[in-house]
Amino acid sequence: MNEQDNHIVTTKTFAAVWIALLMLTAITVSVAKMHLGAFSAFTAIAIASAKAGLVLWYFMHLKYEKRLLKFLLLVPILTLAVIIGLTFVDVWYR
Amino acid sequence: METNFYNTPGKHKGILAWVLSTDHKRIGLLYLSCMTAFFLTGMTLGLLMRLELIAPGRTLMAASTYNALFTLHGVIMIFLFIIPGIPAALGNFMLPLQIGAQDVSFPRLNLMSWWFYIIGAAVAITSLFTGGGAPDTGWTFYVPYSIRTGTNVSLAVFGVFLMGISSTLTGLNFVTTIHRLRAPGMSWFRMPLFVWSIYATGWVQLLATPVIAITLLMLMAERFFGIGFFDPAKGGDPILFEHLFWIYSHPAVYIMILPAMGAVSEIIPVFARRTIFGYKAIAFSSLGIALFGYLVWGHHMFTSGMSDEARMIFSLLTFLVAVPSGIKVFNWVASLYKGSIRLDTPFLYIMAFIFLFSIGGLTGLVQGALATNVHVHGTYFIVAHFHYVMFGGTVFAFIAALHYWFPKMSGRMYHEGRARIAALALFIGFNTLYFPMFVLGWQGMPRRYYDYLPHYQPLHVVSTVGSWILATGILLMLYNLFRSLRTGEKAGDNPWGGTTLEWKTSSPPPVENFEKIPEVTTGPYHYQ
């Protein structure tokens, strides 16, 4: 990680990401009104992950990081995914 | 006089030279002294509980006092003593020495961790005397009772939250240190096994502790604002709390036991005078335990109303986590084969560890099986099981490591005769105290009960007598160590003939640990 590296990201990219985030929020709200039953939580988590991913990738410059850092970020994400998955084995089948 | 980190003047004097020091050795000793004080407090509470239980009905205290006592005993022993435990005290002192570093990666962060710990402890202790009085929920803070009780749960939980920050930062610090500061030539497979275990523990601390932080914040939000995370009437789920709580608290069990296993792997080769059997198997089984440890939390909740599918999966995973633990036990025993064994005090404690931990581990499988779990859930069987693992396992290894590294930390040797008598008293007292609990639990004595039917009394009396023997042993052991700080013989740099790097520097070590950073050319346990 070199702080001297300045990555020029165009305003267009930022705007596109921003609009994508807004749209995903809109989807979350509208999906909440449909009663998807067991899948409601799954959709909410999927959309939230997509949004967090966009923020990390573009706004927090993960795109320009070394592969090791990207890999390390995967460790807690995978841990969480497995933990949430196991919890849902309980919730879904209860 | 030789210069060491005790007599080298620093920036501050007196007590400030300790509480503001960024030297990992001083921070380790700070943790050690605080933890000893908390341990003695927790032990006194335990003695009082046992005394209350010597006869049915009211003996010493009111039922509500008893509820507060077992909560405090649990909170103090778990969060103030055994979770910081070996990593924060002995790990802090020994980790940089063992990898040939001058300090940890982030010495200031290390000091901050201690401050978080001690402030968290102070907040938790304040909660006893303020607000609605000492919490009475048990150390697990289960909802809905922890939301409804008028006792001071919020403040106690906040204290635990602060200590969680301390634990996370310590984990981060150790993982970074092991990655970045190993001496030249020390490849991953030349690291001492204690370092491997601290490494695995560090990852668990780093990845699991934030979950308890979130859980406790949710509990506080619930108490103050009644949001309804755990309230079915508002669309919440009380079992969610148990899930979240155990997602941390089960891996926390491995935060406690992994460093203890590391200490065992360290002591066995030195006292058997031969290299450890199955170095890589032990190293990887630490990682295996850390990994599987995340996936078994549901076994605390088999009778909570989880789905059957979840119960079966968690039961299976629980059986799997026993495999790496078994690998370790077999490797330790195999390491003794054809060894030239020295029966000094650290080794006596290690033998006790293997025996008691095996009982604790195997009775864990009794509870991991769904059918027997329903029978023993919430009984004294559980109490006996986790005391065998936590006390018979972790604390015995802690005491062993304390004796083993005592000459390195203090420069003096403890009195061997007294230490052996204490070890014997501990072993006898421990089994007299906790073994009857297996029988009581099997007969149906529920845990956390203030009163019991008269036919349980004989075993309760045996158990209470055991608590006196055990406490005597502990006091003798501590007295011996404290006295030897002043009167013990000079130990020399390497009294045990250890081969790891901490024995290659003087006792006590100088501020910068080594005159010259050592170069590593062989594995850690190289005996001719």
Features:
heterodimer, A: 94 residues, mainly alpha, 0% strand, B: 528 residues
Give an account of the 3D structure.
- The complex is a heterodimer of chains A (94) and B (528).
- Chain A is mostly helical and 94 residues long.
- Chain A has one domain (11-93).
- In chain A, 76% of the residues lie in helices and 0% in strands.
- Chain A is built from three helices and no strands.
- In chain A, helix 1 (11-33) runs antiparallel to helix 2 (39-59).
- In chain A, 5% of the residues are buried.
- Chain B is mainly alpha-helical.
- Chain B has one domain: Cytochrome c oxidase-like, subunit I domain (Cytochrome C Oxidase, Chain A, Up-down Bundle), CATH 1.20.210.
- The mean pLDDT of chain B is 93.
- Chains A and B meet through helix 3 of A and helix 9 and helix 11 of B.
Summarize the structure.
The complex is a heterodimer of chains A (94) and B (528). Chain A is built from three helices and no strands.
Largest inter-chain contact set: A-B, 13 and 17 residues
**Computed Rg of chain A:** 17 Å
Figure out the total of helices of chain A: 3
**What's the CATH first level of chain B?**
Mainly Alpha
Report strand % of chain B: under 5%
Q: What's the CATH architecture name of chain B?
A: Up-down Bundle
> What structural class should be given to the helix and strand makeup of chain A?
mainly alpha
The shape of chain A is flat
Question: What Rg of chain B is obtained from the alpha carbons, in whole angstroms?
Answer: 23 Å
Q: Separation of termini of chain B?
A: 34 Å
- On the 0 to 100 scale, the average pLDDT of chain A is 85
Low-confidence stretches of chain B: none
- The total count of strands of chain A amounts to 0
Which consecutive residue ranges of chain A, at least 5 long each, have pLDDT under 50? none
Number of domains of chain B: 1
Compressed to H and E, one letter per element, the order of chain B equals HHHHHHHHHHHHHHHH
Task: State the helicity of chain B in percent bands.
Answer: 55-70%
Give the assembly state of these chains: heterodimer
- Tally of contiguous helical segments of chain B: 16
Q: What do we call the CATH homologous superfamily of chain B?
A: Cytochrome c oxidase-like, subunit I domain
* Helical content of chain A (DSSP H or I, runs of 4+): over 70%
